[in-house]
TrEMBL record:
EC number of the protein: 5.4.2.6
Gene assigned in the entry: pgmB
Record organism: Rhizosphaericola mali
Note accompanying the cofactor annotation: Binds 2 magnesium ions per subunit.
Cofactor requirements of the protein: Mg(2+)
Site entry (Important for catalytic activity and assists the phosphoryl transfer reaction to Asp8 by balancing charge and orienting the reacting groups), positions: 113, 144
SUPFAM superfamilies, A to Z: HAD-like
Extent of the signal sequence: none
Family: Belongs to the HAD-like hydrolase superfamily. CbbY/CbbZ/Gph/YieH family.
CDD domains: HAD_BPGM
Name used for this protein in its record: Beta-phosphoglucomutase
Listed GO biological process terms: carbohydrate metabolic process
Residues binding substrate, per UniProt: 8-10, 24, 43-48, 51, 75, 113-117, 144
Residues of the active site: 8 (nucleophile), 10 (proton donor/acceptor)
Pfam families according to UniProt: Hydrolase (PF00702)
Length: 219
């Protein structure tokens, strides 16, 4: 029986990808190169340092470990400045309503995000209280597709992995759910999220019936 829903943040609950993109683009430009919105897709769900490594490779730029730390810090300062402006109501369509609906129905909820800034974002949206547990980039050592972030989320709400459903927009996040032995709902396009148990365009298209229908699949 499904007892918990575990949510990725960026691309599922809120669209912060646009702010990550602006901040990374500014950093790349300061180093004398640029990258496209298509390349930016590859950064979704990827940790800050791994994102920086990819971007530097795109620009053919090599930096020492110390320089990389400084660059990641600079990007984060720009990013944090941008996310200060996030206001209640800026959740992705249907996200807040679905969270409320499943909590009323008795499901546990947890956040499972790669972002170290998840706490600020949830506070600015005013939806921190819709999660029983928050597991973010500060509490994990392994990035998705490692299942750590979701295993910790299930554990924090006292539910077994095979009683948990992961909502994810990134391929690496769906892989993390599979590696953790959990159900997965892809948020986006079925052609991209091919390994998800089901795919919906957004949480506005999710329902308790669809959630329960996953139980037909054995985990
Ligand atoms: C998010 C974004 C990624 C970002 C990562 C780390 O992941 O999708 O682009 O690089 O968090 O964010 P920060 O630099 O704030 O720690 P998720 O897991 O919420 O989709
Ligand atoms: Mg995401």
């Amino acid at each position: 029986m499904i007892k918990a829903c575990l949510f990725d943040l960026d691309g599922v609950v809120v669209d912060t990808a646009v702010y990550h993109y602006k901040a990374w683009k500014k950093l790349a430009n300061s180093l004398g190169f640029d990258f496209t919105e298509v390349q930016n897709e590859e950064l979704k769900g990827v940790s800050r340092m791994d994102s920086l490594k990819k971007i530097l490779a795109w620009g053919g730029v090599s930096k020492s470990g110390e320089e990389m730390n400084a660059l990641a810090t600079q990007k984060n300062e720009w990013y944090v400045d941008m996310i200060q402006q996030i206001k209640p109501g800026e959740e992705l369509p249907g996200a807040k309503e679905f969270l409320q609906k499943i909590r009323e129905a008795g499901y546990k909820t947890a956040l499972g995000s790669a972002s170290k800034n998840a706490g600020i974002i949830l506070n600015n949206l005013g939806i921190t209280n819709l999660f029983d547990a928050i597991i973010d980039g500060n509490s994990v050592t392994h990035s998705k597709p490692d299942p750590e972030v979701f295993l910790k989320g299930a554990e924090a709400v006292g539910v077994q992995p095979n009683e948990s459903v992961v909502f994810e927009d990134a391929v690496a996040g769906i892989e993390a759910a599979i590696a953790g032995g959990m159900y997965s709902v892809g948020i986006g396009q079925p052609e991209v999220l091919t390994k998800a148990d089901i795919v919906v365009p957004g949480l506005y298209d999710m329902s308790i019936e669809k959630l329960k229908s996953l139980e037909k699949i054995s985990k």
